[in-house]
Amino acid sequence: MNTVEESSTAFEATPEKANKLVKAGEPSEHEALHARLIRSIYVWEAPIRIFHWVNAASIMLLMLTGIYIGHPFFTPENSGDAYSHFFMGWVRDVHFFTAFIFTANLIYRFYWTFKGNHYAKSQILQKNFWLGLIEVIKGYLFLPNHKPHYIGHNPLAQLSYWIFIGIGSVIMVLTGYFLLFQPQPDSIYGKSFAWVLPLFGGNDYQVRSWHHLVAWGFMLFVVVHVYMSIREDWLSRNGTMSSIFTGYKFEPAARAYATAENRATVSQPEKVTVLGIGNTLYSDDGLGLEALPELQKALADFENIEIVDGSTEGMQLLGPVEATNRLIVVDAINADTEPGTVIELTKEEIPSFNGIKMSVHQIGFQEVISAAQLRDRLPEKMVMIGLQPASLELNTELTDKIHQSLPELVQRVRHQIENWRSE
Predict the structure, then answer these.
(1) What are the angstrom distances between the C-alpha of 47 and each of 100, 184, 211?
(2) Taking each helix axis from N to C terminus, what angle separates 204-236 and 46-70, rounded to the nearest 10 degrees?
(3) Which architecture characterizes domain 272-421 according to CATH?
(4) I want to staple 255 with a disulfide (CB 3.0 to 4.6 A). Which of 87, 210, 251, 332 is the partner?
(5) How many DSSP H helices and E strands does the chain contain?
């Protein structure tokens, strides 16, 4: 089985270096260099990273000082005049000063929503956002889903930021400034926030309760946020944790090919992987493997085609599946139709299709797809093309019916690649 290795080693590469290697006729070095070049995607701009860390530090400091103001857990010894022991006053000053920074930082982030790159924006008002949200939730619940791949924040993450960092921050700012200026109701600042009182219950206790409740909501958000970031980093191996320091995430090479910047530096078309799977011990179930030599000949005039012998290696197929963005799976497909009929399943149909399993020890391709989907590395475009088997009896030869239909199968695979390449 041909496999595609992924390297996480840092590598200094530029488009200029890659193009020089192409002109020098060194494809092996160029491929290694380019694979590293296009895996690095600049997602979080410096203003976003600055906002993140200022916001995180402000929330932590506000929470710590806020807890102390509400329930002092440390009281300095008082051995003199009160003016020399102003610890509570200092805590309050730190709390208020941090609140000013928190507010300014929030305004700054709102501005960068319009000024920043694609990943700094949110499409919450678009239909696709909410459709994607449903699929993401189904994915986290391990339900069948068609969750798209997201390089930045997925819709569920975006929605949580809108609720906590957006709405939650506004509530904290309004209630906090009301409580700050409440002792001076006749001042310009007191009058400016007087309208907050009826908005949050009509009395001081209600306003303060809202302030405390949302503060603890922030703590819940922080815990979940850190857990989900670590989980995403571990499952996807995409540098989620380091990206908030460097701005860069790492994607499988095939995915990064889709950007215009990468297409401008490399002339060859995007890779298409043709994966033959099956079991040659059970007659027509070996179709996917028996068709590979014919496919090798028929696709010889195409550039950047990878032919993978899947045999019956189960989860070892996860590597080739995740390393491409265009995948054609060739296999026997039991659709209860006329033997030899060419059957084509789209990406949406594959996870729910009950393929052929010859043994309880053989992991079906559906499990491979599910694992790639869980790790958010499912190919963007994928089809399964196969034939209805005539026999699944113990035999190492294909039936005549399947032999006769092989040319049509090969042509269907070729036609699919032509369609992708013409897009």
Answers:
(1) 18, 36, 28
(2) 140
(3) 3-Layer(aba) Sandwich (3.40)
(4) 251
(5) 18, 7
pLDDT of residue 314: 65
For the record, the structure tokens of 112 come out as 């960068």
Beta-carbon count within 10 A of 227 CB: 10
Q: The domain 46-75+86-246 belongs to what CATH superfamily?
A: Transmembrane di-heme cytochromes, Chain C (1.20.950.20)
Burial class (CB in 10 A: 0-12, 13-18, 19+), 16: exposed
Residue 272 parent element (H or E): strand 272-277
pTM of the model: 0.58
- DSSP SS3 for 176: helix
- Please check whether residue 376 is in contact with residue 236, taking contact to mean a CB–CB distance below 8 angstroms: yes
Q: CA 214, CA 412: separation in Å to the nearest integer? A: 58
How many residues can be counted in the chain?
423
Which position has the token pair 């960068």? 112
Q: Give dist(CA 159, CA 26) in Å, integer.
A: 47
Q: Is the dihedral of CA 54, 56, 57, 59 positive or negative?
A: positive
**Spatial contact of 61 and 111, defined as CB atoms under 8 Å apart:** no
